[in-house]
C-alpha cells in the first residue's frame, strides 16, 4: 500500500502543469506517515547528493519513479531528510537554462547524469561489460543484484587515462600499414637505354668489328703508347657511363622517383626530395648527354688506324662544359651535400621513412649500396675527371694535342678550385654565425659598475650594439683555441678567436644540459652548447704589438711557452698588456 501510495503521489506531481521547486519533493506516503522500503541493491550505501545548479532540475516532474530521490535513500533515512538537504543546497528561484551548441554533443550523457544520484544508479542501466542496454531491454535480476559492485569495478577497469604517446604509436602503426600497402602496389621506375648500357661491359677493341685477319694483325702490332692512349680514352668514357648507370640512375629510380610516387599516394609528405637529392635531375641530364655525345663521336670517327683522337675527345668535352656551365651543376650538388646528410639523419628518426629507405635498398640495382654511398658518388666522380685526363695526356705523342688536353685539364681543375673555395667559405660562414650566437657581450654596467646612467637611457643601453658584429660574409676565422691568460691573483683559462681583422678574448661557459630534451635536439645529436663571455674589448689586428718571450726570459719569470700582446690605441697610447701561456711550444 505504501508503495502504491508513493507511485500515486508521484503521478499527481507529474500531472501538475506548474514546475515545482525543491521544497515540494514530498509524497503521499510521507503524509500518511509511511515510508517505502529502500531497494535491496541500495541498502547500506550512502546517498550521493548532486549540486542542483550543475545537474538541472531534480523535481519529480523531471524524474522517473524508479530513480526519484525518494527511492534513493539509505535504510533509516526518510525522504524528508533529503528534502531538507535540498532546501539548504538549492535556491528557491528557478533560473532559465541556456543551451549552447556544445551541449548538443553531450545531450544524452547529460540526461543520464541528472537522473542518477548514486554510482549504483549510474550502472543500474548498463550491461556487465559496461555498455548500455538496448532500447526496451532492462537489467534482469542478476544484473540488478551485481550492478552495485560489479559494474563499478568494470567501469574503473574501462576508464583509462589519455596518453599522447600511445596515440602517436597507434597512428604510427597505421601509417606504416598504409605505407606497406602503397609499396606493394608501387610500379618500379627504370632507366630505359639498353643501347648505352651495353657499352658498359665492352672493351674498345670490341667496337672495331672486322673479320679481316690483316686488320686484326695490325691491331696486334700497335705500339704500347698508342694502346695505352686508347685504353685511357675508353676508360674516360666507361667511367662516365658507370657513374651514370650504377650511381645516378640508381639514386634516381630506386630512391627519388619512388619517394615522389609514394607522396602522390599521400604518404611521407614531410620529406622534401629537393633537400635530400639536390639537383639530381640536372646532374643526370649532363652526364647522360656527355655519354651519348662521346660514344657517338667515337663510333663515327673510329677506324683500325684511329680511335679516340684528341679532336673527338675535346669536342665531347666542349659540349660537357656547355651543359654543366663549366662545372656549376656539380657545384650546386656538392654544396648541398652536407645539408643533405644532416636532413637524412632527421628523416631517419621517422619510422615511416626508415621503412621506406630499407625497402629501397633491397632493390637489386643498388648492388648492396646504401643511400649515403650513392649520395657521395657525384662528389667523388668530379674529382676523378682531372686524373683521367692526365692519363690521356700522358700517352699522347703529338705535342699540339698534348697542349690541347692540358688546357682542358686546367679548365676542370679551375672549376674544382672554385668549388673548394665555395665549400670553404660556406664552412667558415656557418662557423662564424655559430660563434655569433654563442658570444655574450657584457653590458656597459657590467664593464663599468661605477657609471651612472639616466633612466631615459637605460633601455637603449641595456644591450650592446656590437651583438651582430661578427656575422660578416667577408670575415674569415683563422684560428681558435684554449689558452691561459696570466694575470693576478691567478691565471685564467680563456678561449681566443682570431679573425682576419680582430682578436676576441672570451671565457668559455658551459650551458647545463636540460633534463628533458626535445625530440628534434635528440635526433640532431647536437652536444651541449657553450657560450663565450667577452672578457676584453675586441682587439684590432693593427692595434697591438706581439712580443715573443724567449726561453731564457721565460725561465727567469717562471712562465714557459708564453707571449705578450701590447694593445695600443689610435693615439699611440698603451691601453692594455696581455700575457698568454700556451700548453706547448707548437701551440704557441
TrEMBL record:
Annotated segments matching region Disordered: 1-79, 125-158
GO biological process, one term: Rho protein signal transduction
Annotated CDD domains: PH_PLEKHG7, RhoGEF
Domain DH: 228-422
Chain intervals with Polar residues compositional bias: 19-28, 59-73
UniProt cross-references to InterPro entries, sorted A to Z: DBL_dom_sf, DH_dom, PH-like_dom_sf, PKHG5/7
One MF term in the entry's GO annotations: guanyl-nucleotide exchange factor activity
Cited Pfam families: RhoGEF
Name of the protein in its database record: Pleckstrin homology domain-containing family g member 7
Amino acid at each position: 500500500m505504501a508503495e502504491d501510495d508513493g507511485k500515486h503521489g508521484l503521478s499527481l506531481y507529474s500531472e501538475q502543469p506548474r514546475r515545482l521547486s525543491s521544497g515540494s519533493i514530498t509524497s503521499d506516503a510521507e503524509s500518511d506517515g509511511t515510508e517505502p522500503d529502500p531497494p535491496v541493491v541500495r541498502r547500506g550505501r550512502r546517498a550521493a547528493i548532486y549540486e542542483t545548479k550543475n545537474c538541472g532540475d531534480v523535481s519529480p516532474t523531471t524524474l522517473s519513479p524508479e530513480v526519484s530521490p525518494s527511492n534513493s535513500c539509505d535504510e533509516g533515512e526518510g525522504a524528508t531528510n533529503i528534502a531538507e538537504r535540498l532546501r539548504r543546497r538549492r535556491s528557491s528561484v528557478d533560473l532559465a537554462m541556456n543551451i549552447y551548441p556544445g551541449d548538443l554533443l553531450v545531450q544524452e550523457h547529460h540526461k543520464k547524469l541528472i537522473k542518477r544520484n548514486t554510482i549504483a544508479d549510474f550502472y543500474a542501466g548498463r550491461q556487465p561489460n559496461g555498455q548500455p542496454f538496448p532500447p526496451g531491454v532492462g537489467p534482469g535480476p542478476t544484473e540488478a543484484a551485481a550492478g552495485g559492485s560489479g559494474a563499478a569495478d568494470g567501469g574503473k577497469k574501462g576508464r583509462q587515462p589519455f596518453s599522447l604517446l600511445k596515440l602517436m604509436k597507434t597512428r604510427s602503426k597505421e601509417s606504416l600499414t598504409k605505407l606497406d600497402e602503397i609499396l606493394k602496389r608501387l610500379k618500379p621506375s627504370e632507366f630505359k637505354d639498353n643501347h648505352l648500357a651495353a657499352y658498359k661491359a665492352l672493351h674498345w677493341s670490341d667496337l672495331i668489328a672486322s673479320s679481316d685477319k690483316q686488320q686484326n694483325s695490325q691491331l696486334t702490332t700497335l705500339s704500347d703508347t698508342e694502346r695505352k692512349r686508347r685504353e685511357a680514352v675508353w676508360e674516360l668514357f666507361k667511367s662516365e657511363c658507370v657513374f651514370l648507370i650504377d650511381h645516378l640512375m640508381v639514386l634516381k629510380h630506386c630512391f627519388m622517383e619512388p619517394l615522389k610516387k609514394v607522396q602522390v599516394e599521400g604518404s611521407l609528405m614531410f620529406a622534401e626530395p629537393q633537400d635530400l637529392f639536390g639537383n639530381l635531375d640536372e646532374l643526370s641530364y649532363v652526364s647522360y648527354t656527355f655519354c651519348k655525345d662521346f660514344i657517338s663521336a667515337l663510333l663515327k670517327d673510329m677506324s683500325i688506324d684511329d680511335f679516340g683522337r684528341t679532336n673527338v675527345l675535346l669536342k665531347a668535352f666542349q659540349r660537357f662544359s656547355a651543359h654543366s656551365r663549366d662545372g656549376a651543376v656539380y657545384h650546386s650538388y656538392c654544396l648541398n651535400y652536407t645539408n643533405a646528410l644532416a636532413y637524412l639523419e632527421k628523416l631517419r628518426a621517422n619510422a615511416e621513412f626508415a621503412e621506406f629507405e630499407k625497402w629501397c635498398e633491397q632493390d637489386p640495382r643498388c648492388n648492396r649500396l646504401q643511400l649515403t654511398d650513392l649520395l657521395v658518388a657525384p662528389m667523388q666522380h668530379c674529382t676523378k675527371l682531372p686524373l683521367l685526363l692526365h692519363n690521356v695526356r700522358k700517352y699522347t705523342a703529338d705535342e699540339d694535342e698534348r697542349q690541347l688536353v692540358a688546357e682542358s685539364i686546367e679548365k676542370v681543375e679551375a672549376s674544382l678550385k672554385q668549388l673548394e673555395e665555395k665549400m670553404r667559405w660556406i664552412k667558415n660562414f656557418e662557423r662564424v654565425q655559430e660563434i655569433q650566437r654563442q658570444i655574450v657581450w657584457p653590458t656597459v654596467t657590467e664593464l663599468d659598475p661605477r657609471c651612472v646612467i639616466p633612466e631615459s637611457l637605460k633601455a637603449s643601453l641595456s644591450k650592446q650594439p656590437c651583438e651582430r658584429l661578427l656575422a660578416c660574409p667577408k670575415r674569415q676565422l683563422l684560428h681558435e683555441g684554449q689558452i691561459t691568460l696570466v694575470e693576478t691573483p691567478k691565471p685564467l683559462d680563456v678561449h681566443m678567436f682570431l679573425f682576419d681583422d680582430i682578436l676576441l678574448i672570451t671565457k668559455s661557459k658551459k650551458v647545463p644540459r636540460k633534463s628533458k630534451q626535445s625530440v628534434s635536439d635528440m635526433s640532431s645529436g647536437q652536444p651541449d652548447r657553450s657560450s663565450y663571455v667577452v672578457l676584453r674589448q675586441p682587439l684590432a689586428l693593427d692595434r697591438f704589438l706581439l712580443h715573443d718571450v724567449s726561453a731564457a726570459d721565460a725561465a727567469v719569470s717562471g712562465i714557459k711557452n708564453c707571449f705578450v700582446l701590447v694593445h695600443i690605441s689610435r693615439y699611440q697610447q698603451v691601453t692594455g698588456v696581455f700575457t698568454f701561456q700556451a700548453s706547448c711550444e707548437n701551440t704557441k
